């Protein structure tokens, strides 16, 4: 079966995993753990890099990246959210469901 992490779009409300568990049947799972550093792809979504974040570089109008409020509330994808989502996708891809319900 097919499982994938959706692209980031707009305001963050969890890392979305789409899982096609049967033909034309899709489950949506969300992982949302707003703890710690933002994920690499979250930083890239806003045009920044992990290196800039780790070094707290000056990136905009004399402001350091960590002062831009990229993670000022719970609406950001954390590294742990993304790592857990990757692990779930890997596990979901290994599941083989019966073609007909028992």
Number of helices: 3
| Gross geometry | elongated
Radius of gyration computed on alpha carbons = 17 Å
Would you tell me the overall average pLDDT?
A: 93
β-strand amount = 15-25%
Spatial order of the strands in the main sheet? 1-2-3
Overall number of domains: 1
Structural class: alpha+beta
Low-confidence stretches: none
Distance between the termini: 18 Å
Oligomeric state of the chains in view: single chain
**Total DSSP E strands:** 5
Order of helices and strands: EEEHHEEH
Largest sheet: 3 strands, antiparallel
Percentage of helical residues?
25-40%
What does this protein structure show overall?
The chain starts with a strand and ends in an 8-residue tail after the last helix. The strands form 2 sheets. Strands 1-2-3 form a 3-stranded antiparallel sheet, covered by helices on one side. A two-stranded antiparallel sheet has the order 4-5. The model has no long low-confidence stretch (mean pLDDT 93). The protein has 3 helices and 5 strands, in the order βββααββα. The protein has helices at 40-45, 50-54, 79-94; strands at 2-5, 15-22, 25-31, 58-60, 63-64. The chain has one domain (2-94). By secondary structure, the chain is of the alpha+beta class.
